[in-house]
Model the fold of this input.
Amino acid sequence: MSADKQARESQVSPQNASGGKAAAGEIPETDLVQRARKGDLEAYDGLIRRYQERIYATVYHMTSNHEDANDLTQEAFIKAFQALKTFKGGSSFYTWVYRIAVNKTLNFLKQQKNRTHFSLNDMDYHAEHDPDLVALISDKTPRRDVALTELQEKLNAAMQKLSEQHRLVVTLHDVQGLSHDEIAEIMDCNVGTVRSRLFYARQQLQAELADYLK
Amino acid sequence: MNTEPENFEALQKLVALKRHEVPPPGYFDRLPGEILSRIRAEAGQTRPAEAPAGWFQQLWALFDARPILAGAFGVTVCGLVLGGVIYSQQTEANAFAAEPNLNSKWVMPTELAGASIPVNPAASQPGLPDATPQNGLVPPGESLFNQVQILSQQPSTATVNFNLSGN
Done:
């Protein structure tokens, strides 16, 4: 089996990606990292394919702009490859590359402080059939006239009103489904800080989106 | 801060709507190829300069990945500079205090003024009075220039008659 094929087959679902543990038939993350450190781009291709969706999604939810998310995701993976020799393996590659992407995104957002241009992605076709969303926009809600796209825009606007740190915590926890411990490691802070930021951010969002939550 | 669980259930369901926002179809099939192309392109451009700047690039990449390390490095450098300044000042003060000639009552004149200047003009010029003590030492704190002034105040001139035979 060629290395490229092995790398492509090493893709895992987001749920498995979290711990960096290989499921049956997958190449372990540590093996791919070892090979990539020696300059094996096919192995690195496997690492990119394993984590690209989650990295992209995090950056996208932070920026609310597809083009920016695309650039930052690419830069994060390029930076990670260049710095792979400094990766000691103390944390998983997944956490490490996440941290690079998050730092790049936060720096980008600081430079673009007054930017208000959003470029939102389309909803996938599952959205209209999501039972939770159907319930939210059903006849039982006071805002039954609201369309899915309007809800998306309102949600993004409310998210953008949060500070970068609070938006990041909400994105990583409520959208990406990461644990408090993982978020603390990525953000280089303690778990208590993550919890308090999440609580505050949810309060802010709840106040902003009160019309859609009654 | 009160972080007791509130009823964020509806909010979490609403926020989960963002999971359905997806990039254009085929985006994730193209992305790895684009990243690898850029890595290859950048590797080709930077290869000649890679060898001498390797350690610096690694350090830079490490700081980029962990900004807290960059901060710690900055603090350490500042601390070392500050420590160096304080240490050098203390060393100078200690060296000055420990100098045996400066603590003693008498100082060798050659150590004060260097050997090139004649400390006792009387020794080289017989017409001048000897202004220094007999043991050849100068009291500490007394400058050689003061000696010169003292010598100039003393009458050290001799009368000379110029009798020209023709006048």
Confidence is low (pLDDT under 50) at residues 1-21 of chain A.
